[in-house]
Structure formats: C-alpha cells, structure tokens
Specification:
595 residues, alpha/beta, 7-stranded mixed β-sheet, 7-stranded parallel β-sheet, 18 helices, phosphoglycerate dehydrogenase activity, chloroplast, EC 1.1.1.95, NAD, amino-acid biosynthesis
C-alpha cells in the first residue's frame, strides 16, 4: 500500500457531470436544451425545456385544486379520470408527464406506448406499487412521489383509531343505532399510564408518539435507524423489537411493507405479546398475517385491533373485518381535506421541477448512467449493495446505525475513481431492507441524511495497474452491537469486505476472519472450534433439509483454534435446520443472512 486518502462524505449530492446523462425525448415540434451549470466535478443542474408549446401533463386521478392550478401555470393540463388501460396507452404518447394516485397502473405498456415522450411520472402519495420502476428507468422516465404531505393526517387517524378502540366507540355506536343500550358490554380501558409501542419511528410514528404522550401514555419505539436523541427529546425510549412487542399494552404499526416486514406480526410474534394487547395499523396491510391475527383475537392474546389497511383492498369475505373485536376503516389515513391539498401541491411541485430538469429529492428511480461507466463498475455496483445488505443484517436489534465507513482499495487516484454510484448502492443496501425508501443515484445522500446516517469514504491507494477500477470494498458500521460477534473487528466495528472475482461479487472478510464465498443466494456464517469434520456435519444437516450449498469457505486464526465458516446456500433453510446447526457442540454462534 502506497498511501491512504480519507475524507468524510458531504451528504449533499455532488456527482461528476461526466458520469451522468439524462436521456429524454421530446416531440418532433420541440427543441431540447440540456445544460450543466458550471463547476468541475460538481452536480450539474440540467435544464430541459421545450421551445414552442408548453409541456402536457396528464392527471389521471382526482388531484386537489391547488395542485392542478400550480401545474396550469407551467403546462397544459389534461384531467382525464377513470381511464381504461387501453385509453391511457392511447393518450400517453401526447404527454410529457403523468400524475396518478394508487388506482392507475403505470405498466411497461404505458411507457412503451409513450414513444419516448413521457419524461416524468408523479405518484400523488407514498407507495409506488402501481408504477413499473424498471420500465420507467429503461425508458429514461423519472418517477417522483409525495411522501411528506399526509404525515399529520395519518398520525391523527392512528390516534383516532387508538382512542375509538379503547372505548369501543364503533361497536357501541352500531349497538345504539340498532336500538340497544348495552352500557355494561362496552366498558373500555383507559390510556393513561399504559405503554404504547410505536413500531417504526419515522415521520408518522414520531407524530403518533407525540400525541400519545399528550394522552398520558408511556411510549417506547422500535426503529434501528431512529436517532436516539430525537426520541429522547419527546420522551420516547428506543428498544429492541422483542422488547417492544412483549412489554406493550398497545402497539401502533408504522413500518413500510418490505420483504423484511411482510407478515412481521404472525403466530410467533403474537405469542410473545402481553395477553390482552391492542393493535393499531395505519401503515400497510401486509405487515400483519391476517389469519394469525384472527387466531390471536379468538384466543384472547389480542383483545382488540383497529385497522385502516389490509392485505387485499377492499377486503372481501374477511373474517378479520367481521370480527366483533375489530374496528375497520377503508384506508382513510391520508383522507383529510388538508392532506389531499398538501399532496396535490407536493406532487405538482415535484413534477414541474422534474420537467425543468431538477433532480428531485423525492425521485424513486435514477437517471440513466453512461454505458461505459456502468459497464466498468457493474460488478462492483452489485458487490457494494450486497455488502451493505450483509452489514446491516449483522446489526443487533435496538442498535441504531449512524456511522458507516467505506474503504475502496484501488490503484487509481481519487480523481480517476468516481465512487458516487458505489456509495449510493451501499446506502441502498443499508437502508432498503428495513425501509420503504427507494434509494438510487439521485436520492442516496439525501435519504442517508434524513435518517441521520453518516457515511465516510476512504480510499486506500494500492500499488499496481489502474486497469481495474477497484481491488476491494470494505464496509464498517461503528457504535453498534452485532448479532454475530465474530463480525466485529479488533476495534469493535462490524466489518465486511468483498472483491470481484471473474465478474462475480465475493465476500472475502468478516471481522478479522478471511473467507471466500460467492455473494449469490444467501449466506450462513458459523463461528466454531476448528476441528476435523465440521464441514461435513454442517453440510450433512443442510443436505437433509434439501438446501443446496453453492460455496463453502473457512477462515481461521490458527489451527485447532477458532474459525469462521461461510456457507453460500441457494435455498432458505427452515428454522429446524438452522436450530440443528446451532446445536452442534463445536458451533459457538451462527447467523443466516439474506443477500
């Protein structure tokens, strides 16, 4: 190693203009100007404008008047609601922007039908399940959403459900209207002095916590990214997931629906809760296993549930909705007049900004990257995201990820290695597994800053040929606990390191242990006493569970001492298989990681 250069990342976005291009198409009657505004290696502001006609914006679902008026100041606006997929495809070739809510599917066919003219899709709301992001990116179309305007409305609805559930308001109302007067049947519970667990302490969760504190409740929260000082400022204690659900009288759900949170409340988690717990969900329906919730209600584990969201909406023939101890509303979290106007203005501003070429912080897909840059960095881009995903999964519950250091080993000088895309992918790997955020080249640094995540980059300048852009990438997370102690370096940080071999990302170091395993499928890490037969024992157990092993590598400190075995698997082992691995006497700890 010849030298080392280290610098902290400024969390504002400053990529090189030489490695960013926005491919866009205008109608034949328009002219295009794309102009980077000054500065070597500074983030350019691309100005995209049509000479002649105004751009056309198609509003395909009802949008607040204030938002429509804002759009009309800049563009020709076509408000056409309830379009069939065929009608939308027929119209879209005449439009530069499209605004939808959740009811319109913006499919690959829509982008193909646009003939390249569609430059931006605006989703008036948070979720973008109805937009084909891959197709949008392939067609050079930016997708933006409006994630902040409905925060207060959703929090207020959460509190409304909380109080209505506690005092049986919906059931008592229906009873009185049916001509009954059952005061003794609908005796409720008080909120004062009760413990509320807020699951995910983001914008909505923190607002619910503030209001619950005002009602005299003791509030705890679980969120691995929430800043502890922000929680303390409003009197909230951050705890692990298990502690939150096991000690709460009331649980309020605010997490996004991701693979990690899908059915996170299930038979197993319900069994850990206090008998008589009450649950509020104004987040996403899929975070609850609805059949398991019915069983928990019938068993008395869950006394009541108040639900605004469901796995399938509207729910049909739902035992959960019909349960006497369930209060249900039809996804009204953002349904206030004020929130609807706020969302309309927020998405209109984002769409106008995008049409002007501004790179919005609410963008959920990336502009096109030049082919030559992507081709060179492609295997390292995959490595960067996978190292981020591995590192964050090693963090123990309750630990907040705040400080990350990334080291790039390269023979190239700092000016010849643009790590912006790599940093974005590491950020994506760190945040997306437990978040609804879509992290990309545009919003990576903004998203990290919003979550209090500081990422520092360090380049280790190596002797050798600069033909390859990188030799290795190392990711370290400091000031956290690890669920796999062997992943800690000598200085106490979680550390993973990887290289690209024959175009395939490989994990080459965990903590202080050298390993070599392909980052395909998923990985089991085992710390063990180094002794004969360990590979065979673990391999046999996996074979009995019909789990295919793709790679296996063992790194050790010395013969007959301690070793770390890294096993690449194509299939997810069952809990029973993992339990059997952990019961091998020589295995001191192990962890299963999804890549």
């Amino acid at each position: 190693m010849a030298a080392s250069a280290s610098s902290a990342i400024n969390l504002s976005i400053k990529p090189s203009h030489t490695s960013l291009s926005w491919q866009t198409h205008l109608s034949s009657t328009s002219a295009l100007a794309v102009s980077p505004l000054s500065g070597h290696r500074q983030y350019p502001r691309f100005v995209i404008y049509a000479v002649g006609d105004k751009p056309t914006v198609l509003v395909a679902e009802k949008l607040g008047e204030a938002g429509v008026n804002l759009l009309k100041e800049f563009a020709d606006v076509d408000c056409s609601y309830n379009l069939t997929p065929e009608e939308l495809c027929n119209k879209i070739s005449l439009c530069d922007a499209l605004i939808v809510r959740s009811g319109t599917k913006v499919s690959r066919e829509v982008f193909e039908s646009s003939g390249g003219r569609l430059k931006v899709v605006g989703r008036a709301g948070v979720g973008i399940d109805n937009v084909d992001l891959a197709a949008a990116t392939e067609h050079g179309c930016l997708v933006v959403n409006a994630p902040t305007a409905n925060t207060v409305a959703a929090a207020e609805h959460g509190i409304a459900l909380l109080t209505a559930m506690a005092r049986n308001v919906a059931q008592a109302d229906a009873s009185v209207k049916a001509g009954k007067w059952l005061r003794n049947k609908y005796v409720g519970v008080s909120l004062v002095g009760k413990t509320l667990a807020v699951m995910s302490f983001g914008k909505v969760g923190s607002e619910v916590a503030r209001r619950a504190k005002g009602l005299g409740m003791h509030v705890i929260a679980h969120d691995p990214y929430a800043p502890a000082d922000r929680a303390r400022a409003i009197g909230v204690e951050l705890v692990s997931f298990d502690k939150a659900i096991s000690s709460a009288d009331f649980i309020s759900l605010h997490m996004p629906l991701t693979p990690a949170t899908n059915k996170v409340l299930n038979d197993e988690t319900f069994s850990k809760m206090k008998k008589g717990v009450r649950i509020v969900n104004v987040a996403r329906g899929g975070v609850i296993d609805e059949d398991a919730l019915v069983r928990a209600l019938d068993a008395g584990i869950v006394a009541q549930a108040a639900l605004d969201v469901f796995t399938v909406e509207p729910p049909k023939d739902s035992k959960l909705v019909q349960h006497e101890n369930v209060t249900a509303t039809p996804h009204l979290g953002a349904s206030t007049m004020e929130a609807q106007e706020g969302v309309a203005i927020e998405i209109a501003e984002a769409v106008v900004g995008a049409l002007n070429g501004e790179l919005a912080a609410t963008a959920v897909n990336a502009p096109m990257v030049p082919a030559e840059v992507l081709s060179e960095l492609k295997p390292f881009v995959a490595l960067a995201e996978k190292l981020g995903r591995l590192a964050v999964q090693l963090v123990a519950g309750g630990s907040g990820v705040k400080s990350v250091k990334v080291t790039y080993g390269s023979a190239r000088g700092p000016d010849d290695l643009d790590t912006r895309l790599l940093r974005a992918m590491i950020t994506k790997g760190l945040i997306e597994p437990i978040s609804s955020s879509f992290v990309n080249l545009v919003n990576a640094d903004f998203t990290a800053k919003q979550r209090g995540l500081r990422i520092a980059e360090q380049r280790s300048l190596l002797n050798g040929s600069p033909e390859s852009p990188l030799e290795f990438i190392q990711v370290q997370i400091s000031s956290v606990e690890s669920k796999f102690a062997s992943a800690l370096s000598d200085s106490g940080e979680i550390r993973v390191e990887g290289r690209v071999k024959d175009g395939i990302p490989h994990l080459t170091k965990v903590g202080s242990f050298e390993v070599d395993v392909s980052l395909e499928g998923s990985i089991i890490l085992c710390r063990q006493v180094d002794q004969p037969g360990m590979i065979g024992k673990v391999g046999s157990i996996l074979s009995e569970g019909n789990v295919n092993v793709s790679f296996m590598s063992v790194g050790r400190v010395a013969p007959r001492k301690h070793a770390v075995m890294a096993i690449g698997v194509d299939d997810q082992p069952s809990k029973e298989i993992l339990k059997r691995i952990g019961e091998i006497p020589a295995v001191e700890e192990f962890v299963y990681l999804k890549i």
